[in-house]
Amino acid sequence: MRTSLRTMITLVASLAVLAGLSAPQANAAVHNLCKEVGSYGCLAFSGYRPYTNTWADTRYYGGVHNCTRYVAYRLAKGGVPDQGTWGNAYEWWHRAPGAKNNTPAVGAIAYWSSDWTSRHWGHSYGHVGVVEKVNADGSIEVTWDSYGDNINVRQVVSGNHLPTGYIHADNAAIKRSGGIVDTPPAPQPVKDGDTIAYKGHVYRVAGGAPIYVTNFDHVSGSRNVRAVNDAEWNKLRKYPKDGTIIRGTQPGHKFTNSVFVIAGGAPIYVSNWDHIGGGKPYIDVDLATIFRADHGYPYDRLRARPANDTFLFAGGDGAVSSRTVYVVQGGAPIPVGDWNHIGGPRPLVTVDSRAIDNAGGEGAWQFLNKYPSDGTIIQGRKPGDPLHGTTYVMAGGAPIYISNWDNIGGEKTAYWVDLEAIKRAGTAPVWNNLRVNPADGTQLKAHKTGKGYVVKGGVPVAQDKSGDKAVTVDHVAIDRAGQAAPYHHLKAEVKPAPSPAPTPAPAPEPGPSGEDPQPAPQSDAPSGAASSEGGIIAGVIALITVIAALVGLPALVGGTGVALPF
């Protein structure tokens, strides 16, 4: 059948119209749901704005449109701690954590390589966005921001506009930041080694307890952070369980990679694996948090000293304290010579004996006291001993006896120790975690009398008032200082002996008539001259007396007559 020219022209025109309708094939793979320039309206659902007060602003320049800042913001809002910078978008494939593949998932980072952006957009910086939805037809819904042209979009992409790949840094965090709530699978229990986020802080779990992470650069391992809810958080331990091994890491710090064993909630330094029986699995935690133990929230998941009644076994290589059992009271290790003295065996944590020997030291050794802290109440136990059950308050490293609870303000919790540790206080080699007498300068206050004292050479010396750090003690211990045990932990003041009285001169012999002797007349002349002159005069008087008697004159001495002139 022949076709008329008019029919042919009409057909060609129709084909041309159809061709015109299907011409934009290059853009058919992109469908913009929202596209704005200069504002942030397409991304406002997530809270994204010029300044977000997150680490994304610091790492990727707050105040400007930027694809990397937008994705970093979504991570930060979802609870991921500061990651530092991963550079330009094209660098993220190699620098960002998490799995990288061609499998899209809600919350994944959509990644376009520098080669793709060079071919399609004319620059080689690469590009990143967020996967908001995965469709059954293979297309995905993404959001992204853009530097330079200040465009922000929400769009559906498919075909050759699909991302080069997907980075699964923390899909859950990004989903949370966008307000996407799925029906999640049953959560897995939090386990050791997990990194979790709770109320704006990030923690590494060790021994069932959360240890605060001050900076992700301080810890190794996976940076995937799992947010936990109140119920999961409340199931965690307050402190890591005894025997947990942790390694403190903080690149550049002199103690980085130091190993510690948890005892009574505190990290006890391990100087050599052999001292605790060989190498063991450990969990990396932030070293900065170890050295800030007990410094308040969020550093309150490690103790600065082991809890009272924590029992230690000192392993080691022949050091002074090795192969000895200790009980920690007031932060100090007190030797236990016989289990029967304190009621029988208890669970032990094996620690490095060098930690015992260096108790009271600095740096990694700081987590044990040399002596129990002031005010700690201890009770000596040794059934059958006359001093069994005697109770003491620690002051300046020494136990001060309490004769009656009322004398220190009422009954308090007393912690058991081996009585032998009190009786042998200050003796070598292992009984040196108690002093015999308080350290000089220790301040005391007698509760009943209110009097204050300061210890000098073991003696409680009275002062006008007690200091702010005075330890409340029993006044009886002060009154009886220097007496036998249990009062011997304070010395009595030694008073100087009185000066000896002068030796009296011997009394003169009575006279022949029985009269009381008269004191000899004093002379200003030297004693030798007085003696010579007196002898001459006495001789003259005696001669005159004899002559007078011969001639009948009255005597000169003892008589009543007139003395002759001479």
From TrEMBL:
It comes from Corynebacterium cystitidis DSM 20524. Keywords: Membrane, Signal, Transmembrane, Transmembrane helix. Residues 497-511 have a biased composition (Pro residues). Pfam families: CHAP. This is CHAP domain-containing protein. It comes from the Bacteria. The keyword Metal-binding does not apply. InterPro entries: CHAP_dom, Papain-like_cys_pep_sf. SUPFAM superfamilies: Cysteine proteinases (SSF54001). The chain crosses the membrane at residues 536-564. Residues 494-531 are annotated as: Disordered. Residues 1-28 form the signal peptide. Residues 42-168 form the Peptidase C51 domain.
